[in-house]
Amino acid sequence: MTTPTPTPLSYEQAGVQYDLIDPLKVAAQRAAAATAAHLPAHGFAEVAASRGESAYVVDVGPFYMASIVECLGTKTLVADEMQRLTGRSYFAGIAQDTIAMAVNDLITVGATPLVVQAYWAAGGSDWFSDGDRAQALVAGWKAACDVCGVAWGGGETPALAGIVEAGRIDLAASCTGLVNPKARLSLGDELAAGDAIVLLASSGIHANGLSLARKLAERLPQGYLTEVAPGLGYGEALLAPTTLYSPVTEALWQAGVKVHYAANITGHGWRKLLRHPKPFTYRIHSVPPVPPVLAFIQQQAGHDAEEAYGTLNMGAGFALFVRAEDAERTAAVACGLGVDAWVAGRVESGPKQLFIEPLGVHFSGESLALR
Amino acid sequence: MTTPTPTPLSYEQAGVQYDLIDPLKVAAQRAAAATAAHLPAHGFAEVAASRGESAYVVDVGPFYMASIVECLGTKTLVADEMQRLTGRSYFAGIAQDTIAMAVNDLITVGATPLVVQAYWAAGGSDWFSDGDRAQALVAGWKAACDVCGVAWGGGETPALAGIVEAGRIDLAASCTGLVNPKARLSLGDELAAGDAIVLLASSGIHANGLSLARKLAERLPQGYLTEVAPGLGYGEALLAPTTLYSPVTEALWQAGVKVHYAANITGHGWRKLLRHPKPFTYRIHSVPPVPPVLAFIQQQAGHDAEEAYGTLNMGAGFALFVRAEDAERTAAVACGLGVDAWVAGRVESGPKQLFIEPLGVHFSGESLALR
């Protein structure tokens, strides 16, 4: 089923160099933080704890307003290649991926997503002349908005010859929502020892780790057509659309479950469980099944469990931190919506670290440097 | 000062083909409109009149929430070339341009911009290794936020090798704001015959028409170093940062001036004055001075007044429609903030059309098809 004895391939070897981006990020974060001082003149105030979280939150009085912009990344390159190989368009799924990047981040703060804006920057006007592909993008975008109950407000469809490569498209989404009532805010103030960690199933790689996944395809003799499970090709599996988690967070509030904290498991894999600044030890006692495409990538890249779980979602696309007594009900609400979920661990007093006990994996607090 | 007898160059010849984009736009607009039905489930409602306007507006009860995402376009290609020619970075101004694209659109609906998110998608991690350029981008972004009184919430800095061209960056901004109090909403309900049209000065080309401007540079013997006025080079003039108009709209509200309608004059030039769906005749009796760079482009491209004013801002970057008795005060408020302004025309009963009387130019209502 798979080719044997692969040469290891790290994320850096796959072309993403975080050290070149990070100094700029630090400067940008400092400059951005200083601008919060403008809000009181309008009668509002920043929720400072949202700096460094997945969405930015402003207290506008009767509720909190949250906003975000998120890039899809390079998953379209897989869709383009698969369209070349199969003649089919995968852009309906790609549209869902793009909205998921924004919506799944926005909901971590407790916001209900209300409005999505589309950012579709093509390498030239001719990108839009492939009618099937363009219509798939529109239909998939609309369908994802329907799942999330958000209004598609509008957007931009620039043709950027000379900036975006010919035949390619740069996709992103912005999302604005409200935390309403304000008690839904889930920035971690209530996160406490004894809380349970509920993991929600991913559909596959989602939209993080694609640079690595594409590099691996280059060295497979059958490329994206390699089987990762009987009847399931690598490219097809990579293109499984990202799960949209906002129906779960909305249903939890309706069911009376208060989410203490939430983490969208994207880049940095399970290290995202360490995101909150408070010092806690997170102990995972059971891990969800690994989707075939992620098991295949781990095997092909020669990653041990630490590298795999520190980079990819490995079957868990979203984490909810809730009171222990709410844990089973949280999982049941998600399962009722068709999203598999597991009560997978607990929050403990202790230094900031993560144990994934069934795998013998340990991540220190320093292994995630997002702030 | 300029080269003689140029060959005419249209916008389509410059590489932007609207007919390939528009069928997709129509499909997207229809799909987007249908998603408004999701908002009542959250207790909110779309402000339907904002569909087709420059920002999308939702009634969230105590105020209206407005949001938008906007692309800079290809102005960075001029900045890149000028950096090559002069060794200087122009990305502080480019940052202002990007924020202006979003903020100047958001304020047309009467919203106070509150949060900006940055979207900086580079062709590779190495874009960020030019420290001067990256720091200029950060500093310019912060400075523009300071001018507009908005909080910089965060953003994305993806490295998109294979999608964005090596050495290039795709810049966009999302902006979220509130119309507060709700009486500030300026979607044109109050637009009426007898209203005055006040035009606010542009700083130059702003960020629309750059494809045409770049094409012209290619056929100039001295390219971007050609003088458009004594001591002012073409590239330097093109890179004048876009004027930020939100201080003006905020000050007008403070001064008790109710804006009936507003138009950000970007693509389609002065035809944007025809944006509102109501049938009115717009009569301009005086035109502002034309910035040297726009006069140069008009002359070089061989455009008559109709083509120039139908494509470029020609010195007017923003239009405010106010009661006739507020017109002089509106202009005075803008001038007091350092933005030149002119009471330039009036709204009349009659079929939808625009007369620019000093130039003998007439645009019919059909000349602008944005919806």
Features:
globular, alpha+beta, Phosphoribosyl-aminoimidazole Synthetase, Chain A, domain 2, 60s Ribosomal Protein L30, Chain: A, homodimer, 2 domains, 371 residues, seven-stranded mixed sheet, six-stranded mixed sheet
Would you give an account of this structure?
Two copies of one chain form a homodimer. Chain A has a seven-stranded mixed beta sheet. Chain A has helices at about 20-35, 75-85, 90-105, 130-150, 210-220, 235-240, 245-255, 290-300, 305-310, 325-335; strands at about 45, 55-60, 65-70, 110-120, 150-155, 170-180, 195-200, 225-230, 230-235, 260-265, 280-285, 315-320, 340-350, 355, 360-365. Chain A is globular. Chain A has about 375 residues and is α+β, with helices and mostly antiparallel strands. In chain A, about 60% of the residues are buried. Mean pLDDT of chain A is about 95; it is low at about 1-5. Chain A folds into two domains: about 35-185, 60s Ribosomal Protein L30, Chain: A; about 195-365, PurM-like C-terminal domain (Phosphoribosyl-aminoimidazole Synthetase, Chain A, domain 2, Alpha-Beta Complex), CATH 3.90.650. The first copy, chain A, is built from ten helices and 15 strands. In chain A, about 30% of the residues lie in helices and about 25% in strands. In chain A, a hairpin with a 2-residue loop joins strand 8 and strand 9. At the A-B interface, helix 1, strand 3, strand 4, helix 4 and strand 5 of A face helix 1, strand 3, strand 4, helix 4 and strand 5 of B.
